[in-house]
Amino acid sequence: MPVESAELHVDDPVLGDLVLDAAVAGPDDGEPVLLLHGWPQTALSWQKVMAPLAAAGMRVAAVDQRGYSAGARPVETSAYELPNLVRDAGNAIDALGWDRAHVVGHDWGAVVAWALAAQHPGIVKSLTAVSVPHPRAFNRALKSDPSQWKKSAYMAFFRTAPGKAAHVLLRDGAQALRAVYGDAVDQADVEQYVEFFSEPGVLEASLRWYAAMGGDHFKDVGAVDVPTTFVWGSEDIAIGAQAARGCGEYCHGEFEMVVLNGRGHWIPDEDPDALVQAILARIG
After folding, report:
1. Comparing C-alpha atoms, which of 216, 218, 213, 212 is closest to residue 77?
2. Residue 249 in 3-state DSSP?
3. 267 Cβ partners below 8 Å, 6+ apart?
4. For residue 274, what is the DSSP state?
5. Which one, of 36, 68, 45, lies nearest residue 207 by Cα?
6. Are 209 and 39 in contact (CB under 8 A)?
7. Across the strands, what pairs with 31?
8. CA–CA–CA angle 227, 232, 237 (5° rounding)
9. Which residues, at least 6 apart from 183, have a Cβ–Cβ distance to it below 8 Å?
């Protein structure tokens, strides 16, 4: 099924009109599914998921989020605070002409999806969060689980010096950035990511998500009442078992946790079939 390109106009109360790039597929009358990517990826990360969802009759949109889309790349760190990212996701649903959508998020996209579902349940039909658990479950593990602290230690560098971090990741032919993906992401896709993030200012903009992350915003993400599935790989290098298994405590509606044994952090790349199955099961 063909994939169409779209430009979604989302309004920011400070910056005004921003434009998010999106890839859209599936029948116009299909169940609406919004896909939110993480770092350091783009809507490209959903390519193996979009096609089977569209073939199953879903209307699917994968959005390049704030900092990734050229028309939505502010330089102020405050512009990347979680409430702004959540507003973008909600406005994207509206710009697509949808009243409500099934929301799927991976990595940072999962953080946005959790917050959107908690704060705006009226526009979220269901939630499928991938790899990253509810922000409060993550925060709790970060404080009490030494292994989670070690897994998350890299964030301190990203938060305090996004410009320097971007330089380190891109030097020597982007050796450090390439290492982030490991062997889980197809090499052809890695080359596309490296080319994309090598454009001036792009990688630094994506790292402003980390620089803007604040404990208060994460603490403000309440419990989720919408039907929810959390998909986690047992070998995830970024999220440990304590954080993952604490997720259900913050899901007050129908909840399922899907553990993919032997899989890591890059589930949309590593095991798209299992992820599609989990999404379709949640959508019903």
Report:
1. 212
2. helix
3. 106, 130, 131, 231, 233, 260, 274, 275
4. H
5. 68
6. yes
7. 58
8. 150
9. none
Enter the tokens of residue 248.
């259900």
Q: What is the 3-state secondary structure (H, E, C) of 108-120?
A: HHHHHHHHHHHHC
Q: Which class for 157: exposed (0-12), middle (13-18), buried (19 or more C-beta within 10 A)? A: middle
Pair 83, 217: CB distance under 8 Å: yes
Q: Is the peptide bond before 121 cis (omega within 30 degrees of 0)?
A: no
| Strand pairing report for 58-63 and 31-36 | parallel
The residue type of 33 is V
Tokens read off for 260: 């993919």
Q: What is the pLDDT of residue 218?
A: 76
**Predicted local distance difference test score (pLDDT) of residue 18:** 97
Q: Are 115 and 86 in contact (CB under 8 A)?
A: yes
Give, as one character, the DSSP assignment of residue 89.
H
d(CA 122, CA 143): 32
CB 3 within 8 A of CB 25: yes
- What DSSP element (H or E) covers 180? helix 162-181
Handedness of CA 215, 216, 221, 223 (dihedral sign): positive
Task: Kindly state the tokens that stand for 54.
Answer: 């569209």
End-to-end CA distance of the chain: 21
Greatest Cα-to-Cα distance within the chain, rounded to the nearest angstrom: 48
Question: For the chain, where are the E strands, in sequence order?
Answer: 4-12, 16-25, 31-36, 58-63, 101-106, 124-130, 228-233, 255-260
What parts of the chain have a pLDDT lower than 70?
1, 215
Q: What is the 3-state secondary structure (H, E, C) of 129-141?
A: EECCCCHHHHHHH
Instruction: Give the chain's radius of gyration (CA, Å).
Output: 17
